Amino acid sequence: MESNVKCLITTKPNKGKKCINEILNRLLTKDINAKVIEYINNILLVYSNLDPMIIYGLLISSPPSCAEKIFPFHLILEKDEKKIISETMNFMINKFKNIKTFFVRCYNRGGEINCRTIEMGIGISLRNFLIVDFKNPDIIIYVNILKEFVGISFLKKGQEKFQLTLSHKI
């Protein structure tokens, strides 16, 4: 399993190579061993010794011009549907005590797991603890399915976007 991968970043069309340098310019000051690869077209993986939320902070505070979304991985799991559902449920229940509403958004980026199964499975497993709310959730569970592993991110609505719309700005 990919132990050093910390985030997934989506880029604007055909900007992956350009974006790698912009991201590294921000990360290398804190981690000289940081590495960014273009996993598939317009999808970058960030490898680092830094905590995923530190990377998130470094990049979101000075966004790369070519990047669109960032998903810091709070969990990295094997490609096993039951394990993905149970580990995500346990993490939510143990880590987020004040959360009342949520929903799940899954992206299949080359793995053979069905996103609908994961979304439904996590939703059903949390139904006794939280309420599903598609319009105004306290937290969104992002599931990124890759060929080798599954990365799970827990973010507030709009927190994954580099370019915030006027409704998200404070």
Automatic annotation (TrEMBL):
It comes from the Archaea. Keywords: Methyltransferase, RNA-binding, Transferase. Residues 53-156 form the THUMP domain. SMART domains: THUMP (SM00981). One of its GO terms (biological process) is methylation. SUPFAM superfamilies: THUMP domain-like (SSF143437). GO terms for molecular function: methyltransferase activity; RNA binding. Pfam families: THUMP. InterPro entries: THUMP_dom, THUMPD1-like. This is RNA methyltransferase. It comes from Saccharolobus caldissimus. The lineage of its organism: Archaea, Thermoproteota, Thermoprotei, Sulfolobales, Sulfolobaceae.
